[in-house]
Each structure stands twice: as structure tokens, then as C-alpha cells.
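call fold target=AI-2E family transporter
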Amino acid sequence: MILAFALLGVYQLGSWAVHRLLGLFVVVLVAFFVSLAMEPAVDSLAARGMPRGLATAGVFIVLFGCLIGFSAALGTLLVETVDNVVGETPRLTEESVDWINRTFGQDFTVTQLRDRLLKDSDVISGYAERAADHAWGLSNTILGGLFRFLLIALFSIYFTAYGPRMRRSICALLPPRSHDAVLSAWDLAVEKTGGYLYSRAVLAVISAIAHGVFLAILDIPDALALGVWFGVIASFVPTVGTYVAGVLPILVALTVQPIDAVWILLFVVIYQVFQDYILQPRLTARTVDVNPAVALLAVLGGGALLGAIGALLAIPVTATVQAFSSLYLRRYEVPEDPRIDRTTLGRPEKD
């Protein structure tokens, strides 16, 4: 009984510690994969004679510069979009009311709509009060996210700068027969994570150019910024990135020429099919070759375990595990068999 109670206490203590340290574990995991993605660039600079610390600093300065530039451009774009929506709301409201009256034979007026909203002002004020109550929680969430971002940046820089020393320290704790497996797994992780980042970056550039040009043809305001927004979000946000990225250009088009929103939606769908079936397979075949069904399952599983971060890391992790297992799993040659290749069934045999 004493042993059972002791084991129960140890389990409760371990469970409490895991729940408390889960956030830190996620931060370290993300930082580790960021360092794996940055390591090829740092190794390339270090091989040319640049000190590793200076090479790490240069690579991360470029990375942070791109993130800051994208965030600034996105903030400006969102402010301009909200301002356009607010300024065009009266015109869009009048046009919508006129369309409803013509289409359905009604006789609504903007005044009636305004009176209805004022009549339901209690509901609106209730939403406002709840939003004000959650303002403090939102500010805490933003500060917490900023703190986690700084932690990820700090650990990423450390892991990248001291990558060779970390590998040596890990190998020093293991028997010599395990060194080859550990170093092979590490190299595969670097190759697949860097390949994933490379393929996503190329897809983002192509998508940004294509959507930017199309939006410019439609004479949509801030076409270049919207193209960059679409390229980054659609390429780096798994599964739902395309749909999230398409909302902002469509919203901007609604404030200019509503029919353009339909053309943007059609172009987004057509380009997504082109990217999924033609462009992406050609890129990932040389970088991260993962079956689309396996990739979707990995993204869903990673999202269920660690949320958005897990979904983002799922594909490089899956590619690494797949490549590492292929080195040690024994495969056998399978002869041709009509029960495997169903396309051969029912065909007449050649003489």
C-alpha cells in the first residue's frame, strides 16, 4: 500500500510538472526546428570562413528583417482596408438595399434599417460591454505571445550557433555504436526542414507574383501588398491557409467593385488546383516528398496535439521520420501480380 501511494504521488507530481512545462516544451521544440531550417545557411557561410556566431547573427537579422517588414506591411494594409470598408459602408448599404428591393419587390429604406439597428441597441451595447470585459484578456494574450516569440528567437539563435557543440555533447552521452544513427537522424532533420522551408518560400514567391499581377489587372488597391499577403499566408499556413488568405483581397474588392470579388474567388480556386497538382509536386519531389494524404493526416494530428504550431511542424517532422525509417526498414522486391496492379485484370494476354 505504501508503494502504491508513493507511485500515485509520483504520477501526480509528474502530471503536474508536465502540464506546467508543456508551454516551455512547445517553445523549445519550435526553436529547435527553426534552428534546423536556418542551419544550412549558417553552415554555408561558416564554410566560407565566416565565424559561426557572426554567420548566425547575419542569417537571423535577415529573417527578423523579413518578419518585421511583412508585419509592418500587413498592419498598414489592414488599417487601409478597415478605413476603406468604413468609408464605403454607406454606399454599399444603399446599393444592397436597392438590389434587394429590385430583386424581391420590396420597399425597404436605409432609414428603416438604421431604426431597426437603434431598436436593437441593447444587443449591440451588450456585445460592446463583453468586448470591453475581454480587452484585458486580449492584451495579456498579446503580451504572452510576444514573450513566447522572444523566447523562440533566443533559443533558436542558441541552437543554431551551438549546433556542432550540441551534437558532440549528445554523442558523448551515447555509446559509439549509436553515433551514426544520431548524426544521420540529425542530418535528415536539417535536410527535410530546410527543404520544407525552401519549397514553401518558392511557392510563396510564385503565389505572391501571380496574385499580385491578377489583382493589379483588376485595378485593386494595394495589389502588390495583397499579393505578398496571399503568398505568405497560403504557403505557410497548412490546410486552411488559402481560404484565410483569400478573405482580405475579396473584402477589398467588395469596397471597390463587388463583381471583382467573384473573379478573385475563381482565380484563387483555379490557382490552388494548379499549385496542388502541378507546381507543388514538382517542388516537393526534390525537397520534402510526402504523400498528400499522409501530409493531411500529419497536419490534422499535429494540430490536435499542439494546435497551430503542431500543424505547421507536422510536415517536416513526418518527412524526417519517413526518410529516417527508410534507411533502416528492410524492403523486399515485389513481383508483378494482377492482384496488386488492378489495371492488368481483364486484359487479354499477348502471344
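return ok
The mean pLDDT is 77. Residues 21-127+138-173 form one domain.
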